């Protein structure tokens, strides 16, 4: 088995602008094993599919202990880097975020998504305060001795409809990316953004590797690579497609 440190280093190396690593999101050990068999270079969980698989709604409704046990089981199942969606850190204050990060690393994760939206609210954390939270996460990573990958997510584009995305929103995203990088983030996740020109601008003006989620309105992999994207994830898409297939098959069986 590859060590956690080596997995973390390998995961960092997968993030190359113009040659994006593809993360086809898993939700449990079984799905992770299938995705690994298909040729994955790393495994990533998504908060929505993990919550749904365990009977919870998204938004930190799944108990952290359950989510962490799921990660332990995934790590034990696949010999690949495993990155976890930690949503907003299961706590507002930096100290709580740091504790959550430490527990995720103890469970075997080598990276995590960390978002800036206010869980249970409608807006985003202030840039400066979110930077403090990321800095606390970075300190926890340093203390662990595991060079984990902090993927700082902004929900700016998810809070607006795709046809409302603009250069002004990209300006705001760039401001956040710069602050998050200074605080210790290793990647910048902009879910919801699908406009080619705006993605290209974000990748050009942000030093961090940019992560885009492959939603229906998002350009294909080849175009995203051309635009400078370094990471493509699928979020809830695989689980939703699986659920539709399973329901259709079940209905057919019951007829």
Automatic annotation (TrEMBL):
It comes from Aminobacter anthyllidis. It comes from the Bacteria. This is Isocitrate lyase/phosphoenolpyruvate mutase family protein. InterPro entries: ICL/PEPM (IPR039556), Pyrv/PenolPyrv_kinase-like_dom (IPR015813), Pyrv_kinase-like_dom_sf (IPR040442). PANTHER family: CARBOXYPHOSPHONOENOLPYRUVATE PHOSPHONOMUTASE-LIKE PROTEIN (AFU_ORTHOLOGUE AFUA_5G07230), PHOSPHOENOLPYRUVATE CARBOXYLASE. Keywords: Lyase. CDD domains: ICL_PEPM (cd00377). Signal peptide: none annotated. The keyword Cell inner membrane does not apply. One of its GO terms (molecular function) is lyase activity. Pfam families: PEP_mutase.
């Amino acid at each position: 088995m590859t060590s956690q440190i080596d997995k973390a280093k390998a995961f960092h190396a997968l993030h190359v602008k113009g040659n994006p690593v593809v993360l086809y999101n898993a939700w449990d050990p079984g799905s992770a094993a299938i995705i690994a068999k298909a040729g994955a270079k790393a495994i990533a969980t998504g908060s929505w599919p993990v919550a749904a698989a365990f009977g919870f709604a998204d938004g930190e409704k799944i108990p952290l202990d359950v989510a962490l046990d799921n990660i332990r089981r995934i790590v034990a199942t696949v010999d690949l880097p495993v990155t976890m969606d930690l949503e907003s850190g299961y706590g507002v204050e930096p100290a709580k975020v740091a504790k959550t990060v430490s527990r995720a690393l103890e469970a075997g994760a080598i990276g995590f998504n960390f978002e800036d939206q206010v869980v249970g609210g409608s807006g985003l954390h202030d840039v400066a305060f979110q930077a403090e939270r990321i800095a606390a996460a970075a300190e926890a990573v340093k203390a662990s001795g595991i060079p984990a990958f902090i993927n700082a997510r902004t929900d700016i584009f998810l809070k607006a409809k795709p046809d409302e995305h603009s250069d002004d929103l990209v300006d705001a995203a760039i401001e956040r990316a710069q602050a998050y990088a200074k605080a210790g983030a290793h990647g910048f996740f902009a879910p919801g953004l699908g406009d080619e020109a705006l993605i290209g601008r974000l990748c050009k003006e942000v030093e961090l590797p940019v992560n885009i989620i492959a939603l229906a309105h998002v350009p294909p992999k080849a175009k995203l690579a051309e635009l400078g994207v370094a990471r493509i994830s699928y979020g809830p898409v695989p689980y939703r497609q699986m659920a539709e297939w399973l329901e259709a098959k079940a209905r057919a069986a019951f007829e």
